[in-house]
Design goal:
With 109 residues, the protein is mainly α. The protein is 72% helix and 0% strand.
């Protein structure tokens, strides 16, 4: 064989070897990335400041009695919002007229 033919064969062999190693490494990295994604899909990172188990997260605002919710609005100075909430609750028959009047008297409205 001629020297040129041997050189071409060696270059093709090295190129094929490099291509094979590159393909193997790329496949390995893709598998790691897929595994990482699967792990992140099924679990959420929890920290010391996590609120997933906080009692407030378990009770939506709809479960809070209207009078208590109105009290919170009054604490933060939202008198109009508290009255509006109680009027809606009276219309839905969740609060009686007596409770509404007692709330207004208690807060001097």
């Amino acid at each position: 064989m001629s020297r040129t033919l041997i050189l071409v064969a060696e270059i093709l062999l090295v190129a094929a070897l490099c291509f094979g190693i590159g393909t193997y490494l790329a496949n390995k990295m893709a598998n790691k990335k897929r595994a990482r994604r699967r792990l992140n899909e099924h679990s959420l990172p929890l920290s010391a400041f996590s609120t997933f188990d906080h009692p407030a997260a378990n009770n939506p605002a709809d479960d809070m009695p209207p009078l208590e919710e109105a009290e919170v609005f009054m604490i933060y100075g939202k008198k109009a919002k508290a009255i509006e909430l109680l009027r809606k609750a009276m219309a839905d028959k969740r609060v009686s007229r007596d409770e509404y009047d007692a709330f207004k008297a208690r807060h001097g409205i």
